[in-house]
Amino acid sequence: MERAVELALIDRVLAQTAADTRELAAAMTRRPVSDYLDPDRYAAERSALFGHHPVVVGHVAQLPAPGSWFTHDHTPVPLLVTRDHEGRIGAFANVCRHRGARLCDQSEGQGRRLTCPFHGWSYDLGGSLVGILHGEGFDGLDRATHGLVPVPVAERHGFIFVRPSVGGALIDLDSVLVGLDADLGVQRPEGHLLALRQWDVPCNWKVLLDNFLEMYHVPVLHSGNIGPMFEPNRSLYDEFGPNGRRIDPRRSIRRLAGQPREQWRLRDHALVTYHLFPNVQTFWTQDYLSWLSVWPVAVDRTVCTQHIVADWQPDTDELRRHLETNLDLFDQTLGEDFATSAGVQQGLRSGALTEVLFARYEQGAARVHTAIDATLDRWRRGEPADAWA
Ligand code: FES
Ligand SMILES: [Fe+2]
Question: Does 145 share its domain with 157?
């Protein structure tokens, strides 16, 4: 984030705290309950947003060296993401070219070859077929055209984006990030994956996303843990195409009003968060980057993953305790979010409501629904799902 932007954001927060106001969108919005229940809409969202739109599936910290790989199972095409021996990142369907077995069955690994557990075909980390057991049985097979099936992949600011679509168009990250480069570039942490966790939540993926995209609930639902740390419901929201930047000020930010501007540091007094459309919400704290991803796996079931990466490792008792304290806090707050989201799904299914409401200060949650609608409209017209810029 540029320094002038950082100062302008702090000015906006302090203007609100001084006047005891909050920034408001022009109007509240309503969404039909059917958005969260309709199996046809769910199928369209999964295909358009998770099959054809680029999604963040991981971070370069998960590919620390040539020969590193990880798998990802929450998109319609099961994925294998690799770093080959020249250091290049590749993404492939995690499907053996012989008869379709799952090639890599672990979540991550490291090696010179990937060998299929069914009949032993092997591939290098660039996806080329390099070994067939008893190869004389496949006389005439053109090995050069029987490597792993690639899908488009691109990396920027450490995030690995994949378009999980065989034969899909290359990813244009300028179009996907729509002006967020200046913010994301400066704040990139190097290095280490501190945590990668996963939960299964019985709700529609957008119920959970709505929760992550607003701070209205924080002083109420999280009153026993993080609630009291934050200025109640006084976040700033700015749109970057379908993406969003939300600044969640801590109460300590009021102290800056009496300090010289040169000493103002936003991250000392606020969570700096970005929604990377469609399904990722990132949080930059003072000392690590974390992001939550929501992956629809059924109309009423969602896998939530959390990554934490940092430029330090928990290699002392103090740093281990620091990490554990942070993970405990995430466990408490996410436990409350997951339980509430499961209850919301039951409430929506009950037939009691026909629509749900988003307040004028829940801009991020309201915005994602219009961006999803726009994506579905383009996809139904046969246009690229990610033609944002
Ligand atoms: S399916 Fe992989 S070697 Fe047969
Ligand atoms: Fe929450």
Answer: yes
Q: What is the pLDDT of residues 299-314, one digit of tens each?
A: 999 999 999 999 999 9
Total domains present in the chain: 2
The per-residue pLDDT for range 260-286, each reduced to its tens digit, is 999 999 999 999 999 999 999 999 887
Residue 177 lies in a domain: no
**Which ligand is the nearest neighbour of the Cα of 335?**
2
Give dist(CA 296, CA 228) in Å, integer.
Answer: 32
Report the share of the chain in percent with pLDDT over 90: 94
Tell me, yes or no, whether 244 and 217 share the same domain: yes
Torsion sign across C-alpha atoms 160, 200, 373, 27: negative
Which ligand 1 atom is the nearest neighbour of the CA of 119? 3
Report which ligand 1 atom has the smallest distance to the Cα of 99.
1
277 and 333 together in one domain: yes
Output DSSP code: residue 255.
Answer: G
**Residue 354: Cβ-neighbour burial (10 angstroms; 0-12, 13-18, 19+):** exposed
CATH number of the domain residue 12 falls in = 3.90.380.10
Range of the domain at 147: 55-162
Ligand 1 centroid from CA 131, angstroms: 11
What is the residue type of 110?
A: Q
Q: Are 40 and 107 in the same domain?
A: no
Atom of ligand 1 nearest to the CA of 116: 2
Site residues for ligand 1, CB cut-off 6 Å: 96, 98-99, 101, 116, 118-121
Give the distance (Å) from ligand 1 centre to CA of residue 114.
Answer: 12
d(CA 304, CA 131): 37
In this structure, the answer to whether residues 303 and 219 fall within a common structural domain is yes
Based on its alpha-carbon atoms, the radius of gyration of the chain, rounded to whole angstroms, reads 22
Residues 100 and 231 in one domain: no
- Give the helix/strand (H/E) hosting 369: helix 363-380
For 33-112, list the strands marked E by DSSP.
55-59, 68-72, 79-83, 89-93, 108-110
